[in-house]
Amino acid sequence: MAYRRPLLRTAYEQDAAILPTWFQRVAFFLLVFTFGLAALGAPFLSGIPSFFLGNTWINPITNMLPLGIAALGFMILVGVTGQVSIGHAFFMGVGAYVAVSLGGTGDGGWKACVPFHDEVGLLETAGQCGMGLPMWIWLPAAGIGATLMGILVSPAAVKVRGLYLAIATIGLIFIGLHLGRMLPEYAGDFESGRKWPKLQFKFWQEETPLVDMTSDGKWFGLIHLTEEQKQFFFLFTLLLIFGVITKNIVRSRTGRALQAIRDRDIAAEVMGVPEFKYKLIGFAISSFYAGIGGALFASYNGRVAPIQWSLFLSVDFIAILLIGGAGTIAGTMLGLIFVELTPEVVKKFTEWLGDQVGGGGLVGWFADVLLTQGPGDFGPISLTPAAPGWPMSVFLWNFVIFGVLIVVFMIFEPQGLYGIWVRIRNYWKGWPFSY
Amino acid sequence: MTTLLDVQDITLRFGGVTAINSVGFDVQEGELFSIIGPNGAGKTSIFNTISQVYRPQEGDIKWKGESIMGQRPDKVAELGIARTFQNIELFPQMTVIDNLLLGRHIRMKSSWLAGAMWFGAAKKEEMANRRRVEDIVDFLEIESWRKSPVALLPYGIQKRVELGRALAMEPELLLLDEPVAGMNQEETEDMARFILDIRHELGIAMIMVEHDMGLVMDIADRVMVLDFGQRIAIGTPDVVQKDPAVIAAYLGSEFA
Prior knowledge:
The structure holds 2 protein chains of 2 kinds. Chain A has 16 helices and 10 strands.
């Protein structure tokens, strides 16, 4: 094969490609295949230590995917348009509630929405409240509903900048939570919420769905998958689609206009980019992503409750962006994996350590030191779930580790995980020279 | 020659300060018009009124005979008035190519929805404009910096990229705010050559605000002198140089 200069471009299309370099293409497909095979439970992956891969992993990973769609929207608003908004969870909630009222199973439409207390005393809205419409209606509607809300809010948001916008959008979260408390017959119980329709495709309200994601079985008559695997592949495909759309927006005329607004808004206006219009577009696109993400998130979890759409969720997105590296899709995905899976890794790791206690050897000794075995043992980690005080439970340790990591990232690598990757890349590009 | 821009006795006040006091001038097609004056004379304020970032309280600004007063800055840009800034106002996190392509924004049509789909019209338009931008890269000799984020570029190159971004807008009038400020002799000569090339090859009319008197007197067709927001002289460079009011403003009244 003829020798080719690396990164030699012969057409403008190559410059604007989604994955412009050979390395990026290989890395991307490896990543997709690894996730896919891990979800299928490929036999050759089972050699990896048991706390790393296994059936228990598919739930946290699938749970991460709808949040990924919302995180991409957050990236467009904060990373690309430069409008720091903390109201993202509110828009997710709007999407989720639009979806539940359209897609909620039931025959009576709005009238069946009568709250009652179930056998454990939770406020329940009969699970019958909704129009029972299929997914191809409620999913886009969730996005559009959130978009309309975003457009409604953006004229006010365009007037304020920077930190002031961040504070102003916190208000949205509280409005959302307040509405959740005020309208229990619609929102369900504040903490436990209302039931969610199943993730399944139907043409209309027929009995047997076209594609069912709530039971094990053959998919498209080709491959036998469990319920979890079906949901994983469905949501993973959606995330990929939204990733491509995000990249398209960023690399086109609109994306450049948004970046120009982020960098210097007045200069952008003098260059012919109407500030108001593009801030509004930024809000609208990001709310659309949030609505879709919120609807899918609630749908996957099987519950939609007002408390889910709180400040903590918005702060999660900020952490994803800061840790991953603001303004890039790859960074957002890295941040998403890091923020959403670190708690799981810690949990699984301590569970695994728990099994090693008394096993002898270095690992056994290590586990014995870290874990507390009862009164008189001074290990810092307690395996009792709800143990207050010292030794702390894994749940509390997660918060500590998370907080420490954010501080460390802010000090040592403000560009996030993506910045670390850029450094490694530049090192090897110039090797053996420093620059 | 037809009149491109006609500024009719504009007055701009900020509270009690009168930044521009009843200043009028006109720019002809293909002309290189220069505005000079001591610091704080109101030169940049005139640029800001032309691009409608500031709204003058009195007077009128006509573009090809039609008033542009009250238009939004982006609408003024669409008419064909581009500008560069005194303190570089590039988009620092975007690459040189992206900055130039942003200049093409008003000449492109794809909506955000077409952009999100990419394939088809949006891609075609993108590639056509990318080709157009390459001409500007070639013209300004900034090939080796194409993919660098502009924040990392040296000052002189940033000034050149900013000029390129304005050219990418395909303007009929270019407002240059101190194009050679802070440049050494060689960079100044480079920039002067680019300005003359723009004039001769592209035929774009220009208004240049500049403190480098040598440059202004060498290349400008007409010069307007401002002092404390007032027009004290207007005319060809050699006429303006001998004007007693100009000498008084720059050197003090005992030299006039």
